[in-house]
Amino acid sequence: MPTRLQEETRKLLQGGAAAPEAVVRRGMADITRRLRVESSDQAGEQRAHGRALDPLRRAVLSSLGESTDLRRAVAQLRTLDAGAAKQRLALPKGTRENARIAMSSIVVTRVPPYDYPWSWQWQAGGASLNASANRNTGGMSFSLWNNGNDASAAAAAALGIYFRPSVENGILRLWSSPAFNYFWWTICAFASAHSDGWIGLYVGRYTLAGGFDGSPVNQRISLWSDDSWWSGAGSHSGSTSAYPLFAQFNVDSAHWYALWVWCGGSVHGAGWGTFSGSGAGARMSVAVPSITWELF
């Protein structure tokens, strides 16, 4: 835990006490709108592609016939989809970090508790979903599944800190090395499915009166992205103890900034029928041991 002197010094260097969470959340309404539009548009494109493939799917199924073997194979795929949805991810163990301050340039490393948690989720068609962020532990996660329905879902989660420059104009470097576990799947039988996941940094810029004034950093680094149309990609998992994230941007004393580490993803599946269908899911658990900024 930071000492009282470290906390007082950090507050001085970051430009005072953190702005109220309610003000920051109002600013996040902008990225919420953009994520909602992106997710809705993506779901529409996936459904349109599925409709375009319907004649081909019907022709293939007609040539195969409604056999017992086909019925059994689709049932087995549906069972695999439901089984994948029961997988749970543990919070990864990241490297242990200490709060610190360096004065060659001004460098501040923050560790939990952070100033702000944030999460967002969207679904259409009856998908199963969840997203959360815990400022005290530095953990965040999301879980998405089309839930056996013709459904789409998207989610994001973030942890952030406050910063106000102590100089009229400067350059800020921002970095973090979160640890994470992920698990995703697309399972198909003559139908489409999609799954993707990402991680990155996001910066919200605010006027001194608290009005949102743009996002100089909106970083989303793809960890996986799969579009399957006939047989699916199966299930996949991965992990890392430290994934380096970095951004650099201009700052000025007429604004303050919310500096975030965030993650997110989306899925789409057609649901399951007797002779065709698809399922898709995405899960991610992230530990953010520290967030560091350097002011020049």
How are the elements arranged and paired?
Layout: H1 4-14, H2 21-27, H3 29-64, H4 68-85, E1 100-102, E2 106-110, E3 116-124, E4 128-134, E5 139-145, E6 151-163, E7 169-176, E8 179-189, E9 193-207, E10 217-218, E11 221-228, E12 232-240, E13 245-252, E14 255-269, E15 271-272, E16 277-287, E17 291-295
How would you portray this structure in words?
The protein is of the alpha+beta class. The protein has one domain. The protein is 24% helix and 47% strand. The strands form 3 sheets. Strands 3, 6, 9, 10, 11 and 14 form a 6-stranded antiparallel beta sheet that branches. Strands 4, 5, 8, 12, 15 and 16 form a 6-stranded antiparallel beta sheet that branches. Strands 1-2-17-7-13 form a 5-stranded antiparallel beta sheet, with helices on one face. The model has no long low-confidence stretch (mean pLDDT 90).
